[in-house]
Design brief:
Keywords: Metal-binding, NAD, Transferase, Zinc. With 254 residues, the chain is an alpha/beta fold. It has eleven helices and nine strands. Helix 1 packs across helix 11 and helix 6 packs parallel to helix 11. Bound molecules: zinc ion.
Length: 254
């Protein structure tokens, strides 16, 4: 049975890189999306492609417009909760002190489910807290109250526009997260567990290739086969929340 085969591959590994994407949070009711944009198909109601509305240049040029869509994403995340898949991953990390999470998601669900922040790489950033684009100050007010005010939310100190530390379209990935990822990839992983992502970005494909070349295992959990499926030892097709809970039950800690 595939789940046993996958569990065996991960049981024998000490260092595991768990790569998660939108498909994991889809089981929490969040829509799957490409980057930040998939809450929408194609154009926004303002007639702009979402890649333009949710871009760094638009945030600077027309912060109210960009924030209209940022706030929708914020509200969707605030209404949702981590699911059994996030909790199973946190449990796997408790049993495997060498297990790291690399996520494309900005919803913060891994932290809420108990994944240790020092073994979590949020490559697209996180929605809260907000900080000021003018003076740089971090705003400690809770996100729901900031979203209830007229948009864009503004800094109490200098009235500058606040923004979340997420990677908008046309923005660079955060240096700190890229460095952390690079360091861990160089240390090597015995196995990769890919969950809910097509993994079509270089920063994801590279660690996957490296682990494969070094003889490590690759386990994939996705609804459908993806472009990395041909590389995988096992493809577990199904909802991440269901599959991961079963998988982790079969994994021993040593
Ligand atoms: Zn400020």
């Amino acid at each position: 049975m595939d789940i046993i085969k996958a569990a065996q591959a991960l049981s024998g590994a000490e260092r595991i890189l768990i790569i998660t994407g939108a498909g994991l949070s889809a089981d929490s009711g969040l829509p799957t999306y490409r980057g930040l944009g998939g809450l929408y198909n194609g154009e926004t109601e303002d007639g702009l492609p979402i890649e333009v509305a949710l871009s760094g240049p638009t945030l600077r040029r027309d912060p109210a417009l960009c924030w209209k869509y940022l706030a929708e994403i914020g509200r969707a995340c605030l209404q949702a909760e981590p699911n059994a898949g996030h909790f199973a991953i946190a449990e796997l990390q408790r049993r495997k002190p060498g297990a790291w999470v690399l996520t494309q998601n900005i919803d913060g669900f891994h932290r809420r489910a108990g994944s240790p922040p020092d073994r979590l790489i949020e490559i697209h950033g996180q929605l809260s807290p907000l900080s000021c684009m003018g003076c740089g100050k971090v705003d400690e007010r809770p996100l729901p109250s900031l979203l209830d005010q007229p948009l864009p939310p503004r800094c109490l100190t200098c009235d500058g526009v606040l923004r979340p530390a997420v990677v908008l379209f046309e923005e660079m990935l955060p240096e700190s997260e890229l460095t952390a990822l690079q360091q861990q990839v160089q240390l090597g992983f015995d196995a990769v567990l890919v969950v809910g992502t097509t993994a079509s970005f270089g920063y994801i494909l590279e660690p996957v290739w490296r682990v494969r070349q070094a003889g490590g295992s690759l386990v994939e959990v996705n609804l459908q086969a993806t472009e990395i499926s041909p590389l995988a030892d096992v493809l577990l097709q199904g909802r991440a929340a269901d599959v991961l809970s079963q998988l982790v039950r079969h994994i021993s800690s040593d």
